[in-house]
DNA sequence: CCTACCGATCGGTAGG
DNA sequence: CCTACCGATCGGTAGG
């Protein structure tokens, strides 16, 4: 009957802290994620919360990691069984819309990476570095899929993969803003129309997206 | 020889506070804009700083207003003498790039509206409302310019102005992220290529941007 | 996992 | 515009 919990119980507690921490950070940012609030909300002591992470910065990094796992599970995993190239790319893009639109419980304040990226983009340190690293990984994956699509002839030869990924990112930043700030129900459809311009039947003939070899 | 300053002096002090406050908020957000830090940086007392605004929220709103004035002066004003329609729209877009790229002194952490929008988009209250109001005003102005361009035959008939403005916004969110997070020097050129796709010679034939009257 | 505590900082007020 | 102060909260530690 000691207050000391088993390893498995401790792990579950840690998961609970992280899950709620991600929700808080989604709304108030990784700075707004305070140990005191977390403790109050979960009916724990501050020391009990902090003991699982050591420092606030470690907690922030853990929240980021947890959110990355959710993103991978929600956006990447469902598309993995699709054939590489345009089909998989389109599946990822559609799942990405779903991710931003529906995960209101896990991310009540919208995508945590968008929040964290803007919050830390002008600072330095481990959190900023972690955000940058994650964004780079996803860009690389998207760009690889674009290149496969080009090789398969599903996108026009000469397509600038980085340029396309850059514009895809802009489309999703716009979607997140539209959903969070204006709660606009038409935002998903606007995003799909933007995607059609980038990936759809209209795109292949578009010279601005191909490399400037002139 | 009283410590009481004249009205003009008080105004100048207020401007100094606001100028530095905008710089701080650009990096650390409108929540990170604390009265104590402002006072220390400016060699004043906290009460002296707060006296100009009353509450922190009023200070945040004043910083937002000040940033809006800078945005208008930098992005809109230089384009005002251009003929309405596509020419003015293009001038605004180019000035917008300059605004994000060069104003490192006034906005060391990037565009304050992008920061504030993401910071407050999941909350409620006067600050969030002010951010939303400003974004709506700029969108309306951009959309009006698009419609003029359509009426002049500079953009294809049937162009969905809101859709175009939505995608323009995404392009600039991407630019801000690219500059702040990765300091990418090629970001401006990527943005211009995106603009070419939306506004340039390649755009008129693009069916995805016109209304779906099917 | 807890209680009890630390110094620092927060926004804000009183009074001049 | 200042000094002096308020209660609340911050991240974090000691000790169990």
Give your account of this protein's structure.
Two copies of one chain form a homodimer. By secondary structure, chain A is an all-alpha fold. The first copy, chain A, has one domain: Tetracycline Repressor, domain 2 (Orthogonal Bundle), CATH 1.10.357.10. Helix content of chain A is 69%, strand content 0%. Chain A is built from nine helices and no strands. The first copy, chain A, has helices at residues 7-32, 35-42, 46-50, 56-76, 86-102, 112-120, 126-151, 161-182, 187-199. In chain A, helix 8 (161-182) packs antiparallel against helix 9 (187-199). The relative contact order of chain A is 0.10. The interface between A and B is large, with 51 and 50 residues. Chain A binds a DNA duplex (16 and 16 nucleotides) through residues 2-5, 10, 13, 34-36, 44-48, 50-51, 55-56.
Summarize the structure.
Helix content of chain A is 69%, strand content 0%. The first copy, chain A, has nine helices and no strands.
Order of helices and strands of chain A: HHHHHHHHH
The outline of chain A comes out as: elongated
- First-residue to last-residue Cα separation of chain A: 77 Å
User: CATH superfamily name of chain A?
Assistant: Tetracycline Repressor, domain 2
The CATH architecture of chain A would be: Orthogonal Bundle
Beta-strand segment tally of chain A: 0
Question: Treating each run of at least 4 consecutive H or I residues as one helix, how many helices of chain A?
Answer: 9
**Which class of secondary structure composition applies to the elements of chain A?**
mainly alpha
- The count of domains of chain A is 1
**Which percent bin holds the helix content of chain A?**
55-70%
Beta-strand fraction estimate of chain A: under 5%
The description of the largest β-sheet of chain A is: none
Q: Within the CATH hierarchy, at the fold level, what is the topology of chain A?
A: Tetracycline Repressor, domain 2
Biggest interface goes to:
A-B, 51 and 50 residues
As an assembly, this protein is homodimer
Radius of gyration of chain A: 20 Å
Assigned CATH class of chain A: Mainly Alpha
Low-confidence stretches of chain A: 202-207
DNA-binding region (chains A, B): 34-53
Protein name (chains A, B): TetR/AcrR family transcriptional regulator
Organism (chains A, B): Kitasatospora arboriphila
Keywords (chains A, B): DNA-binding, Transcription, Transcription regulation
